[in-house]
Amino acid sequence: MQQLFNFNLEKISSSKKELLDREKNLKLFLEKGLPNKKDENWKFSDLNLIVNKNFKKITNNYDFEFDKKINFIKDFEHNYIILVNGSLKSSNLKFEEKTKVLIQKLNSLDELNYHTGNNLYSLNKALSSGGFDLVIKENYKCKKPIIIYNYFSSNLDDKMINNSNKIKLEQNSELTLIEYNISEKNRFLKNTFENIEIEKNSILKNITIQKTKSNGYFYKHISGSQGYNSSYQNFILSSGLKFNKIEVDMNLQKEKCNCFILAGLNLAEGEHQEIKTRVNHLAPNCKSYQKIKNVLESDSIGIYQGKIFVKDIAQKTDAYQLSKALILDDKAEFNAKPELEIYADDVKCSHGSTSGSIDEDAIHYLMTRGIELSKAKKLLINGFLSEIFENVQEEKIKFFLERIINEQIDAI
Questions:
Q1: Are 128 and 79 in contact (CB under 8 A)?
Q2: Which of 230, 318, 338, 345 is deepest in the core (most CB within 10 A)?
């Protein structure tokens, strides 16, 4: 393990105390190492095997240049935050009231209070180069979406990025947040921990998009809590990454919460992606809805592990979970592990998983209408994936997401 990693902690530490804290956490990480299939949470994505297979030496990233002009999205008006290699570079919140939307660099991980069972958190605390802290103040609804331009520089080969973020919506507030990942073809690791707090009567719509193909290996853990009558909507469109695992752990702590997690992934040769969710119903009269869709080409691997937990006091829970895979090649692989853990008796909960090949009758029907085979397949794939954005109410954003799906399908 130590032969694989060569980390410099002094250059990212501002004091002797910070250096000692980083060294302590690095030692904790090295004692256990990278997660592997012996851990039930990583049984389908053996990170230790994947990293050792694709990297000979890994160093931490502490020096970079902002060496590329970012082409801003022109499809709709928006505010923006620019991250470079996970660190806050700049922001422009021109459409919002300055005192109502606050953004600053996040330096300390102590406030996140993650459980220590995740060894990648020890690694993150040892090597974190910061992230952002975003607060939407009480009784404020953002006038325009905020796009996070998450840019990765061109000198990241065989390097690791560690960052952490905090997002807080105070009561009666609303935000649409779009994470837009832009990376080069270099091979690197990214390890991110994010904490989300949604207070009473607030709404967070979170959309993740991968703009281009990437040789990056990404891990992201999202831990969140929801207050009374709050709403969390998470849309994931992360096709194009060499490896990606997103874990979402949401606590519905008060009555009348709703939580939606929807993903549409179009995976090509050599790509491996996993979405792992745990939605904890801890209060009565809450609703959760999860739908994960994968289109698998060539030797790609898609995974979904999802758990719905219902506490004994969480009566009147309405929870739905479904994963579906469209397998286009015999070499492709899809693994699903849906789970229900229910301690209340007055609930409506269901889960399911299906996989299969493309509908040959539908292909034949389209071809009889003069549509060539390759285009017919793309039309069916588009229809399969686009369903996850049916609940996006902003028409310009919905049109933009549909265009991104089309571009990703055309790239296959």
A1: no
A2: 230
d(CA 203, CA 195): 15
The predicted structure's pLDDT at residue 109: 56
Separation of CA 333 from chain center? 21
Task: At 172, list the tokens.
Answer: 């009666």
User: 205: closest CA among 187, 182, 179?
Assistant: 179
- What is the model's pTM? 0.94
Is residue 324 within 8 Å of 292, Cβ to Cβ?
A: yes
- Which strand (E) or helix (H) includes residue 336? strand 333-342
Nearest CA to 392 out of 264, 230, 233 is that of 233
How many angstroms separate the CA atoms of 193 and 163, rounded? 7
What is the side-by-side order of every strand in the sheet holding 79-84? 87-92, 79-84, 146-151, 174-182, 203-210, 231-237, 258-267, 287-296, 318-327, 348-356
- Spatial contact of 307 and 336, defined as CB atoms under 8 Å apart: no
The pLDDT score that the predictor gives to residue 69 is 78
- Amino acid letter at 165? N
What is the reported pLDDT for 116? Answer: 57
Q: Which stretches within 328-372 are classed as H helix?
A: 360-368
Look-up: residue for tokens 């492709």?
332
- Joined together, the tokens standing for residue 157 give 């080969």
* Pairing, β 272-281 against β 241-252: parallel
Q: Are strands 318-327 and 348-356 parallel, antiparallel or unpaired?
A: parallel
CB 376 within 8 A of CB 155: no
Q: Which SS3 state, helix, strand or coil, does residue 412 take?
A: coil
The one-letter amino acid code at 365 reads Y
Residues of the chain short of pLDDT 70, as ranges, are: 1-2, 62, 66-67, 108-116, 411-412
- Count CB-CB contacts under 10 A for residue 57: 10
Give the pLDDT score at 111: 58
Tell me the residue type at 254: K
CA angle at residue 356 from 352 to 360, to 5 degrees?
A: 140
Helix axis angle, 360-368 to 373-386, nearest 10°: 120
